[in-house]
Design goal:
heterodimer, A: about 450 residues, two-stranded antiparallel sheet, globular, B: two-stranded antiparallel sheet
């Protein structure tokens, strides 16, 4: 393998591992802020217990996100020097703004949020929780702006192969940015919702009879039930935007080899890059045209119109189906869960188990979605401006192979440890009697009537 | 565009100053928490919990200065970023591995069963050590102008131990400030040991440094300002000696002036940094790339400068706020 393939593998590995954690923390931050607000408003101790459990998950997840993110800032220079040399005048300031406005904010206030409860006034602690949530979202804003610019670049000029920024607001708010940002924030909301719901369901499954996991399960399930239709709508809008600006990506997503009218929506197929056709197609006639052009006989440009300029079809095609499939599964689960919780206040055992199984479903959908959009941009690193091949390093392949292996082993171990630790935290939480006498008295004084359970 | 009047030269100087500030703050701030990691004793459970508690609220933000430093290098001097990091690819990878290991161990150790806690403690200590050694090595190779011959390697190894000693020293001073009782007594012992090693390291690195670049030698030994410059090493050793005396006397001072060793360590870091800065300005890679050679497009830098001017003072302000909130002896770690 050469430096190009290895560098791509390594970058894919690093960024795939990294995105798992911000995807959780962006929305989990807002969940924590909500728990903290409920605690402030109702004074009922259960909200603080939910907060305490999830702030520990947040701390662990955030740490993994920070350390895996540091590696990213090194890899631009080590493995993709051409990227910064050619597109750095746009990419640099956007990354710079992310570090300056978001990273310091979240990291510093995280200290207060985690350890400052007894040191600062309550309002400042609530404020710190808010700032951390806002910081993670702001960080997503900048990095998605940069990523979207790489997908749909504008507001720049190219002189001698080097990109120069001309109009910063055009660069930041490039055509695909609003869609990608919304899509990602909703994805984060769903990932965190399913994680909270899944781990709470696991606590119930292990015999936890406290109110905290029940309330957390309810909050998360309702949130997921509301977010998932919004996400499907946002995803559809994002797809239409992609059709307008990157038709070759949509052609690969839908497996359309030759421009056709009334294209079917392929539920399954095996794309064949060599023969430029699909095998074993199962599809709904005219549906793809209908979804993308709102006309059953609408024309969809095929890959034949982008010879040598289109992405590899199979990974984009399959990833897209994994993402959509996972989305539909989430829709079914979330709505079923919300239905039972609303009508009967508990989920049946089978559904509880489904939620446990779906704890990390957000990861699968998010990764699949990112593979669609990132592989779908190939062979370009910055669409129409810089190819991935042009940006690669001249490092000896053996060095990259070594670092790739080390990262792979380390990340695999950490992923196991992360999931294992979350499970262990749930099991520990089951065993702990969390209610103190003081809290009991306080609860009685307030005469809070928790959501009736069982 | 604001800052239109700033020339590329001025922008280059502003950005090298910012980069310098980020590196210096990183070395001091992450320096002490890496140092605490390096000093982590394998067996004493009580010490370990207290040591982790002393850096708990800070380490995340401390590490962010590294992201800013690497980011500024990437943004303002992209050619230097790729030249430095491609040459130092493997040590950089090892440093990142170390940072990942220590960063996550920190959180994992508090949440897992007692039996597994030991493993994460080991990861924390050796992750920190791997990080400090790699950083020192990288600093050494950078100073030689990215040479990779045997002499440069030897110099880099020496620098690796020097930087580790420096971090351990400031880490011990931090512990003197933040802890009490047995652990504090142990920290005095660590600080004295590290002080000796560090002093030796500074002397060795300073002299070898003169053998590396003719320009640097000329600046320090022959230029008319050479005498003034000599004030830096003289003051530096004065401070180290003073610190030695302070460390000897403090245990009997009944809790007064516990901030002194850390403050002195901070000044020593500042002076060492100033010596490096004076030696290698205006190079971003000594002897190879100057600031102007590697500078990115001026308009992009002006755009980023707008945010920097607004945000950096805010960052410094809320960093100070956090240090004030958590001032005094650290408490047992608990998440509320």
């Amino acid at each position: 393998m050469d430096a190009f393939v290895l560098s791509r593998l390594q970058f894919a590995l690093n960024i795939s591992f990294h995105i798992l954690f911000p995807t959780i923390t962006i929305a989990l931050g807002w969940f924590l802020f909500y728990f903290k607000l409920r605690s402030n408003l109702t004074g009922h101790p259960v909200w603080m217990r939910i907060y305490r459990f999830w702030v520990r998950v947040f701390a662990l997840t955030f740490a993994l996100g920070v350390v895996s993110g540091v590696t990213m800032s090194f890899q631009f220079g080590t493995n993709w020097p051409g990227f910064m040399e050619k597109a750095g005048n746009v990419a640099g300031p956007l990354l710079g703004y992310e570090v300056l406005t978001a990273f310091f904010l979240e990291a510093t206030f995280l200290g207060i949020m985690l350890f400052g409860m007894r040191k600062v006034p309550n309002w400042l602690h609530t404020f710190a929780t808010f700032v951390v949530a806002a910081g993670t979202t702001l960080s997503a804003f900048w990095i998605l702006s940069l990523n979207s610019w790489m997908q749909t670049p504008q507001g720049h000029e190219v002189i001698d192969g080097v990109v120069y920024a001309k109009d910063w607001s055009a660069i930041i708010f490039n055509p695909s940015f609003p869609y990608r940002f919304t899509h990602m924030l909703l994805a984060s909301g769903l990932t965190a919702s399913f994680l909270i719901a899944g781990l709470s369901a696991y606590r119930l499954f292990r015999g936890d009879d406290k109110i905290a996991p029940k309330i957390a399960l309810k909050t998360a399930t309702y949130t997921a039930a509301v977010l998932i239709p919004l996400q499907i709508f946002a995803g559809d809008m994002h797809g239409l935007n992609t059709l307008e600006h990157q038709p070759q990506k949509v052609a690969a997503m839908e497996g359309v080899w030759h421009t056709e009218q009334g294209a079917p929506l392929l539920l399954f197929a095996v794309p064949d890059e060599e023969k430029k056709t699909n095998h074993f197609e199962i599809g709904i006639p005219n549906m793809a045209s209908f979804i993308l052009t709102h006309d059953v006989n609408g024309e969809i440009k095929g890959l034949n119109e982008f010879e040598g300029e289109h992405p590899p079809v199979a990974p984009v095609f399959y990833s897209f189906r994994v993402m959509v499939g996972m989305g539909l599964l989430m829709l079914g689960t979330a709505w079923a869960g919300a239905f039972y919780l609303y009508r009967r206040n508990v989920m049946p055992d089978w559904l509880n188990k489904v939620f446990i199984g779906m704890s990390f479903s957000g990861w699968v959908a998010t990764l699949a979605g990112w593979y669609v959009t990132e592989v779908g941009r190939q062979p370009y690193l910055v669409s129409g401006v810089l190819t991935t091949q042009e940006a690669v390093t001249g490092l000896p392949p053996a060095n990259i192979a070594l670092s790739f292996t080390l990262y792979a082993v380390l990340y695999f171990t950490l992923l196991i440890a992360y999931i294992g630790t979350l499970t262990l935290m749930c099991r520990k939480a089951v065993a702990i009697e969390e209610i103190t006498q003081e809290e009991k008295n306080k609860a009685q004084r307030i005469r809070f009537n928790p959501v009736q359970t069982n | 565009m604001p800052f239109e009047s700033l020339s590329a030269d001025t922008l280059g100087n502003i950005y090298i100053a910012l980069l310098g500030l980020a590196v210096l703050l990183y070395a001091i701030l992450d320096g002490y928490d890496l140092g605490v990691g390096v000093l982590f004793p394998p067996r004493n459970e009580l010490f370990k919990d207290a040591m982790v508690a002393s850096i708990g609220p800070y380490w995340d933000a401390n590490e962010t200065w590294l992201v800013l430093a690497v980011g500024l290098l990437l943004i303002a001097f992209p050619q230097a970023h790729s030249a430095i990091l491609q040459t130092l690819y493997l040590p950089a990878t090892f440093m990142l591995m170390g940072l990942i290991l220590r960063g996550v161990s920190f959180d994992f150790r508090a949440k897992v069963a007692q039996t597994k806690k030991k493993k994460w403690d080991t990861c924390f200590k050796y992750g920190s050590l791997l990080t400090t050694l790699s950083q020192g090595y990288m600093l050494g190779i950078w100073v030689t102008g990215l040479r990779t011959d045997l002499y440069a390697q030897g110099f880099a190894l020496l620098s690796a131990f020097g930087v580790t000693a420096a971090y351990a020293f400031i880490g011990a001073c931090w512990l003197i400030l933040k802890t009490e009782g047995d652990l504090q007594r142990k920290a005095f012992y660590w600080a004295k040991r590290c002080l000796m090693i560090l002093a030796g390291g500074i002397i060795a690195v300073s002299f070898l440094n003169l053998t590396l670049h003719a320009e640097v030698r000329a600046l320090w030994l022959e230029s008319p300002l050479g005498f003034l410059l000599m004030a830096i090493p003289v003051t530096c050793f004065g401070l180290l000696a003073l610190c030695g005396v302070v460390l000897q006397r403090l245990p009997e001072a009944d809790g007064k002036g516990e901030w002194l060793p850390f403050a002195l360590a901070l000044l020593v870091f500042l002076l060492c940094f100033a010596a490096f800065g004076i030696s290698y300005y205006p190079y971003v890679v000594p002897g190879k790339l100057t600031i102007m050679d590697a500078l990115a497009d001026a308009n992009s830098l002006r755009f980023l400068l707008v945010g920097t001017v607004i945000v950096v003072p805010c960052i410094l302000a809320y960093t100070v706020m956090v240090y004030r909130i958590f001032a005094g002896k650290s408490e047992k770690l608990s998440y509320y």
